Amino acid sequence: MNVYLNGNIVKDRDAHISVLDRGFLFGDGVYELIRFFDGHGVGVDAHARRLARSLELARIGGFDAALLGKICHELLAANGLRDAAVYLQVTRGAGSVRAHVPTETLVPTVFAMATVAEPITALIAPQEITAITAQDMRWTLCEIKTLSLMGNILHLLDADAHGASEALLHRDGFIGEGAYSNMALVKDGTLVTPPIAQVPPILHGTARADLL
After folding, report:
1. Which of 7, 13, 31, 143 is 20 to 30 A from residue 207's alpha carbon, by CA?
2. What gap in Å lies between CA 140 and CA 176, rounded to an integer?
3. CATH of the domain at 35
4. Burial class of residue 67 in the structure, from the number of CB atoms within 10 Å of its CB (0-12 exposed, 13-18 middle, 19+ buried)
5. Alpha carbon of 86 to those of 49, 89, 172, 179: distances in Å?
6. Domain coverage including residue 145
7. Which residues are catalytic?
């Protein structure tokens, strides 16, 4: 597999990232995942805007989120893919020592990969899933699409232990989103979805925005 690392397309076996990278040590970074169908990306500009917002909120500089689409197409071409999922992450970079607050100017580490995904024809029919509900135990900055997904993973492990594939997360009884999905329902003929401006905020879902 060919991957993208810091401006270059290389074989995955030749992609080397420092063990002192803050993404590895602290989960200190942000990411996006974009679906491509027959070579066409879904909401690429929206993903780029959300990436820019995540970088701003995380105070990570040195990478232009507007390059997201270009990187995606380079990866698709390098791997000969048309139906794919492209994952891109930007970390704060690697320092010379492990320190919670960087003691030096860092250069962000940018990594991306493209993997084969189902064509759109396989996703036309509604899919039935099972879910549990759970008190949202994550932090309150969910509008940042951060690499640190421990809270989401623990919720999904609980769901799996109960034979379900998703956890609908609520605070004080009000569901905001799933552990890995947006939340929307049809009630009395009206489409209802939680507000992104609630306190604490939820992730600005690109699929949610398209739906509305």
Report:
1. 7
2. 12
3. 3.30.470.10
4. middle
5. 16, 10, 35, 20
6. 131-206
7. 145
